[in-house]
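[SOLVED] Need 3D model of a two-part complex

Original post:
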Amino acid sequence: MDLAYLWFFIVGVFFVGYFVLDGFDFGVGMSLPFLGRDEVSRRQVINTIGPVWDLNETWVIVAGACLFAAFPEWYATLFSGFYLPLLLILLALILRGVSFEYRHQREGLAWKRGFDRMIVIGSVIPALLWGVAFGNIVQGVPIDADKNVTGTLFDLLNPYALCVGITTLLLFFLHGVYFVGLKADGQVKEDAHRLARRAALPTIVFAAATVVWTTLIAMERDAPLIAAVIGCGAAAAIALLASAVANVRRRDGWAFALGAVTIVTAVLTLWFALFPYVMPSSTDPAFSLTIENASSTDYTLTVMTWAAVIFLPGILAYQAWTYWVFRKRITRVQIEKADAAAAH
Amino acid sequence: MDFLDPLILARWQFGLTTLYHYLFVPLTLGMALTVAIFQTIWHRTGDVKWLHLTRLFGKIFLINFAMGVVTGIVQEFQFGMNWSDYSRFVGDVFGAPLAFEGLMAFFFEATFIGLWIFGWDKLPRRIHLLTIWATAFGSILSAYFILTANAFMQNPVGYQLNPETGRAELKNFFELLTNPVALAAFPHTIFAAFMFAASVIIAVAAWHLRRGQHVETMRPALRYGMWFMIISFAGTAISGDQLGLVMVETQPMKMAAAEALWNTACGADASFSIFSIGTPDGTAEVWSLRVPYLLSFLSTHSLDGCVEGLNNLQELYTQKFGAGIDYMPEIWVTYWSFRWMMGFGGIATLISVAGLWVTRKKATRPVAGWMWRIAIWSAPLPLFGSLVGWIFTEMGRQPWIVFSLMHTSDGVSPNVPGWTVLISLVAFTAIYASLAVVEFRLILKAAQKGPDPLPGPDDPDPRDLPVDQTPSTVY
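Solution:
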């Protein structure tokens, strides 16, 4: 049973990885209307995540698969219970993914603008709804004795969950804008700095609200890891403030790294608040899904642990290498040169 | 019929999204390997036409790849969304191969494809070549894990039932990975997928050759495609034969349904019908074209073997699993999908064999226009073959969701109302249909634009160009 506790955190690590990595993809996508003054700057923005969005998105597939394997009951309750939000996320991810691949396949501004719009929509929806989903998980939803969610879509749209959703939306947005500031040059970079300055304040307000609210929920439930909840919440707040300062001082690398730290600690705040539940029931605490009653057998978890121990270092190594290979800024000149080459 | 029956709708959705996902999978599997081979030839010989072929088919590969990825996420999510009771029942066993797929194969594929697309001017040539091989390897490994998961549904192994929790629990992971169904289905699926990549290469090459353009580049592509087709067909047939034997062992009802064999038959009576006309309700046969002994041979590798019939198996299953349930799948679906699967693959291969003959070096007559047209229009045949193959194997499993352990009707999410599934079914259908049109047009456009023209005698060898002049694909 101890392995189940380990896997609670390994699954957490995969979702943390997903939100940090695809988080800035969503932010980059959402920043298109603000930073894409012309076609070249729009391409500059999109190309900052060109080589990596696919592998970043893969984190959610692995997170989902690990959730399925390690906590089948959690997976089944969550996915059937949050049907419509997940459907919207799926449709959004489909539109976003094909838009990256299709927008450059044909000339013509109408074609490209259509896909730009789909990139924006396809980034906003998951950024908001992942937060709503995790807010609901932490707060608890009506779950019956058979471990099935009994509420409707409107139960999921409650104030706390929406607050978490807006927080993830804003956090990812800010994180993505930092990334563009780090990866682009010229006007786009300048615009990104200015945009991040403007976006910082609302992000801080909502993030603070989420941290306090989450702490209150955890305290009410007598969460055993309340100290970690408060610690991570505070760390998230400090990292967020520090990233805003770094952005004002034009330290792009620091702003982005601190933005990543904010997301890591924010997700951990939710994770610690949830512990030892995985899906608390608001109907009757006895119906709640916990780490122990939702997990797979020790044998399965042992096999999975070996796989994680063996493959995770390699995964991290080759993904880090990818970021190293594509470490250079995407310059305006480079896009124009590629344009000229294509015209030739 | 109840149009808001969640079970029916969830089954339709699974069938639709799975087949749609599978429109893209075969091309990804076969094209990744092909592009890797083309780029390797270029790397070894320095012959620039292979670089142009790498780029052309690389582009088609990428247009297709994006759709494969995004439709794949739907596959993973809908087990939990539509089939939560199934997920609860098998999660302990079924989740592990999916997690392995993600950890070992999918990350690998997704990372290296990015490096390949964007790395032309950033990586040393040798490393860049390795990235496409890594992508091909990742995609094929991914297929293996998915097929072990599917094989568990066809032939559950390596598990035990826990009476306390009512769940299937993993007992031996190695047994799960070496499920005889998986070991036969894996090569069968992969080779069949290669056949579709081959037919696309043939069609693209034929389209240009028919117009007399890019002849020097497209002729080797055509020959490659036809050989690739024939070799892959051999692999598909051999592994298919193996899969048939395993199927008789593990799911005899499916084999009986494949032949619509109502009563147990032996020897010459265990004949294989190439074609048959039945009464409209499909319960009796009016006329058929039969090859004696063939079914016996396919099922047992001997001429005097016996093949159990549907009625006999129904009786057996009733004793074994309980009365009052129809253990037969939809016979007309299994019967025809089994034939079409082999037919599509066989016809495509015959076209390639004929193609090799008419395009041989010593051929005295030019290839006629109608021959080119056949080569072009036959492109989707192997894809159709793969799709009906999946229809056969999944419909043939019914009424089980996990053979002998769980009925499909018991796997569906109990708390998801029919209208919710209907909304998602409509949404997926609408989005999938429009994206299919876009995708098809883009591939067509890339294919018809063709490869870059070959350099003249005075142009420099592209390998001698400074790296930053090798164009990199940029969004």
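Edit: Confidence is low (pLDDT under 50) at residues 466-471 of chain B.
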